[in-house]
Amino acid sequence: MSKTKQNILEKALELFNENGLGETSLRQIATALNMSQGNLTYHFKHKQEIVHTLYYQLVENLNQEMAKTIQPQSLLLAMFQSSGTMMHQLYAYRFFMRDFYLIMKESPEIKQHYQQLQTQRNNEFMQFFTMLQIMGMIRDPLFEGEYERFYQRMNILGDNWINAQELLNSEMENPVRYYQELLFEVIYPYLTEKGREEYELVLRMG
Questions:
Q1: Which of 23, 35, 46, 206 could form a disulfide with 19 if both were Cys (CB 3.0 to 4.6 A apart)?
Q2: In the chain, where are the structural domains located?
Q3: Residues sharing a CB contact under 8 Å with residue 138, sequence separation 6 or more, in sequence order
C-alpha cells in the first residue's frame, strides 16, 4: 500500500472516531490532509471504499490476536490478555461499534463477511471451551447448547461495550481495562475450583 493511501486511512480513521461516520465527508478528510478531493478520490473513489479497507484491517488485527489465544500454557491467561488486546483494537476503530448497524445496512459485503466471521468465532470459542473442560477448568454444560449461548452473551457484550462506555461512563480513565475485566468476569460461574484458582492468579498477573 502506498504511503498516501496509508495516510488517508489513518486520517479517515481519526475523523470517523472523532466525529462519526455520517458526519465525515471525503472533502473533510482531504482538507485535513491538505490535499485536493480529486487527489483523494484517485486513491479511494468513495467513502465506502475507505470504510471497507479499515474494516478488513481491523479484522486482520483481530484474527492475529485470536490466533495467539491457543498458544500460551494458561488458557485463562491467554483469554484475558488476548481479550484486552482485541478490545484495544476495537477501541482504536471504535466508529465501527458506534455506527455498527448503519454500516451493516449500507454494506451487504461487510454484513455477509461479519456473519461468516461470527460463525468462525463461534467454532473457535467452542474449541476453546472444550479445551478448558478437558483441563478441568470449567464445568460440564448443564443443558444442551449452554456454552454456545454463553458465547453469544460474550459476543453481545463485546460488540456493545464501547457504546455503553461512551453513554454511561464517558469520563472513565481506562475504559478498555474496565470492560476487559467485566467481560472476563462472565466466565466465573462456569469455573471449577481449579479454574477459580487459575482465575485469581490471572487477575494478579494481569
A1: 23
A2: 1-45, 51-205
A3: 129, 132, 187, 190, 191, 192, 195
Q: 202 and 180 in contact (C-beta within 8 Å)? A: no
Give φ, ψ of 10 to 5 degrees: -65, -45
CATH fold, domain 51-205, is: Tetracycline Repressor; domain 2 (1.10.357)
Confidence (pTM): 0.89
Q: State pLDDT tens for residues 134-173.
A: 999 999 999 999 999 999 999 999 999 999 999 998 888 8
Say if residues 124 and 103 touch (Cβ distance below 8 Å). no
Q: Could you confirm whether domain 1-45 is CATH 3.40.50.2000?
A: no
Quickly list DSSP for 103-149: HHHH-HHHHHHHHHHHHHHHHHHHHHHHHHHHTTSBPPPSSTTHHHH
Sequence length of the chain is 206
Do residues 140 and 132 lie in contact, with contact meaning Cβ atoms separated by under 8 Å?
Answer: no
Q: How far apart are CA 169 and CA 186, in angstroms?
A: 20
Q: Which residue has the cell 473457535?
A: 124
Q: Percentage of the chain with pLDDT > 90?
A: 79
